[in-house]
């Protein structure tokens, strides 16, 4: 009898401890208050091809890889950051509208918009190595060192195996109880997922564990009025220089690319 009471008491204590741990974990992961908002300062301005309808942007060793969209104009590019000079280019067949781009070791992975096909290239030669399919639209793409992260214009991010392109998990992005839709171009920065919100001047910072918004970046006024010529489109394109801790942003058919630093909004 005494042994049974001890066993039950031990079980009760273990369950209580487990419940306390679960509550603590929920409290830790739950955002407290609204996510902070950041504004910016421009540190450097670089030239950018005003014909490039930027859909994907990746920084690597002083150069940019860029995916430019539109039917009949889609391409994969290597660009010198400092001068904006196009060093290399591969033009996609006119039936494809290029979208997000990620660099995975020595491969470049590029999405297309509504064709449900992605392409794999040699990052040095731009030789087309392979292609893969997916059931949604393709918007943004990023690499976190383990998975490809893909957006499709909804509030959902999908984590793909970089070799098989199978979906390994999905994450719904929310600010409080509100799903954040129109997630577009993606970048992984210091452990967070950053996403352009299509047709806005905002970038959202996302927890990759929970999908919760951990911050907003307001880039209103980044492109000067005098540079907003006919054909200039919306903000899109985030690149991260991890070694130099530099944030690079541009837009569709923007004539400039900006290095920025962030400040808490007043």
Structure overview:
It is globular and about 50 Å long. The chain is built from one helix and 22 strands. It has an eight-stranded mixed beta sheet with strand order 16-17-18-19-1-22-21-20, with no helix packed on it. A four-stranded antiparallel beta sheet has the order 2-3-4-5, with no helix packed on it. The chain has a four-stranded antiparallel beta sheet with strand order 6-7-8-9, with no helix packed on it. The chain folds into two domains: 30 residues; 232 residues, 7 Propeller (Methylamine Dehydrogenase, Chain H), CATH 2.130.10. A hairpin with a 6-residue loop joins strand 18 and strand 19. About 6% of the residues have low confidence.
The CATH homologous superfamily of the largest domain corresponds to: YVTN repeat-like/Quinoprotein amine dehydrogenase
- In terms of DSSP E residues, the strand content is over 45%
Strand order of the largest sheet: 16-17-18-19-1-22-21-20
Number of domains: 2
Spell out the key features of this protein:
single chain; 266 residues; Methylamine Dehydrogenase, Chain H; 2 domains; eight-stranded mixed beta sheet; four-stranded antiparallel beta sheet; 22 strands
């Amino acid at each position: 009898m005494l042994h049974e009471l001890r066993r039950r008491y031990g079980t009760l204590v273990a369950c209580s401890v487990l419940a306390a741990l679960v509550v603590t974990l929920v409290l830790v992961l739950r955002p407290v208050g609204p996510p902070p908002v950041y504004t910016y300062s421009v540190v450097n301005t670089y030239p950018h091809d005003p014909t490039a309808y930027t859909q994907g942007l990746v920084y690597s060793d002083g150069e940019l890889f860029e995916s430019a969209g539109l039917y009949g104009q889609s391409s994969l590019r290597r660009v010198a950051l400092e001068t904006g000079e196009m060093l290399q280019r591969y033009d996609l067949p006119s039936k494809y509208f290029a979208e997000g781009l990620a660099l995975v070791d020595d491969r470049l992975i590029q999405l297309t918009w509504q064709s449900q096909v992605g392409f794999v290239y040699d990052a040095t030669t731009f030789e087309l190595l392979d292609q893969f399919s997916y059931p949604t639209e393709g918007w943004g793409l990023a690499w976190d060192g383990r998975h490809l992260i893909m957006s499709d214009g909804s509030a959902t991010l999908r984590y793909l195996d970089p070799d098989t392109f199978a979906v390994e998990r999905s994450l719904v992005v929310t600010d409080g109880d509100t799903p954040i839709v129109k997630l577009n171009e993606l970048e992984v920065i210091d452990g967070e997922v950053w996403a352009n919100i299509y047709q806005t001047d905002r970038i959202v910072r996302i927890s990759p564990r929970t999908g919760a918004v951990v911050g907003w970046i307001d880039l209103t006024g980044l492109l000067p009025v005098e540079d907003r010529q006919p054909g200039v489109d919306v903000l899109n394109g985030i690149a991260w220089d991890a070694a130099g801790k530099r944030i690079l942003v541009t837009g569709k058919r923007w004539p400039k690319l900006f290095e920025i630093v962030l400040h808490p909004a007043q």
